[in-house]
Amino acid sequence: MTTAAYKRILLKLSGEALMGDDSYGINRVVMERIVAEIAEVSRLGVQVAVVIGGGNIFRGMTSAEDGMDRATADYMGMLATVMNALALQDAMRRGGLVSRVQSALRVDQVVEPYIRGKAIRYLEEGKVVIFAAGTGNPFFTTDTAAALRGREMNVDIVLKATKVDGVYSTDPKKNPGAIRYEKLSFDAAIAQNLKVMDATALTLCRDHKLLLNVFSIFKPGALRRVVLGENEGTLVQV
Ligand SMILES: Nc1ncnc2c1ncn2[C@@H]1O[C@H](COP(=O)(O)OP(=O)(O)O)[C@@H](O)[C@H]1O
Ligand SMILES: O=c1ccn([C@@H]2O[C@H](COP(=O)(O)OP(=O)(O)O)[C@@H](O)[C@H]2O)c(=O)[nH]1
């Protein structure tokens, strides 16, 4: 019997992870694969909460650079995460996983609002909880929402599923010679401005002693290995 190293996890899925090699939107095959990976850890008895990004549809910062009011653009970005959450929930349904979506912005006809106690109850029942609309505030990111909801849900670890398989000495997409860290402290990640997660999110994790693992969602079986406590991605800790 394989035993997971963590009882409850918060998985941060970037919007861009959902588009695979496409340039926009949601790739159905990629989505099904991600759902299968989540189902595998759920079957281990691990309680799974998900914070979903929106970068595959809309990124506030990019539009603000083009002259749009930043807060307006950020609200659009948060609404984009609600669309991704609905798509993810539907893919989970098709994949045999029961999930509930809770949104930090009220869209009552579509999803229920974020209610902490209810979310915890769902997790205890073995349902996957998908948190949409980030923190509900402009000028923040879904990475920060992951740290925040992770703390509120009392998870054992926050897992950032992204396009690269860990934290590197510099951006590995730009520097092929970048070296991957197996372990790293929050202070080092912040001091070196390693960019893999924003400083607000890293600081929140650090101050609340929340473990963080950064790993690649495109690597088959990586999520399961992280959950089993194997050497996968980069473990960031105090
Ligand atoms: N030191 C670093 N280590 C790893 N990735 C880095 C680093 N610096 C920059 N990056 C870039 O950060 C990206 C992940 O951050 P971000 O774009 O915010 O992810 P996401 O969209 O998954 O939230 C990676 O794809 C990588 O190219
Ligand atoms: O608490 C939050 C979370 C997200 N966003 C907006 O939503 C967009 C999509 O989220 P993010 O870029 O974090 O998604 P990801 O990179 O994970 O796909 C961001 O660009 C922001 O504009 C926000 O304003 N507040």
Structural account:
With 238 residues, the chain is α/β, with parallel strands linked by helices. The protein has one domain: Carbamate kinase (3-Layer(aba) Sandwich). 39% of the residues lie in helices and 18% in strands. The chain is built from nine helices and nine strands. The protein has helices spanning 15-19, 28-43, 60-65, 70-94, 116-124, 142-152, 186-191, 199-207, 222-227, and strands at 8-13, 47-52, 99-103, 112-113, 128-132, 157-162, 183-185, 211-216, 234-237. Strands 4-3-5-2-1-6-8-9-7 form a nine-stranded mixed beta sheet, with helices on both faces. The longest helix has 25 residues, at 70-94. Bound molecules: adenosine-5'-diphosphate and uridine-5'-diphosphate (UDP). Adenosine-5'-diphosphate (ADP) binds next to loops.
How does the helix and strand content classify structurally?
Answer: alpha/beta
CATH superfamily: Acetylglutamate kinase-like
Q: What is the chains' assembly state?
A: single chain
> Termini separation (Å)?
31 Å
Number of domains: 1
Enzyme class: transferase
Subcellular location: Cytoplasm
Catalytic activity: UMP + ATP = UDP + ADP
Main location: cytoplasm
Keywords:
238 residues; alpha/beta; Carbamate kinase; binds adenosine-5'-diphosphate; binds uridine-5'-diphosphate
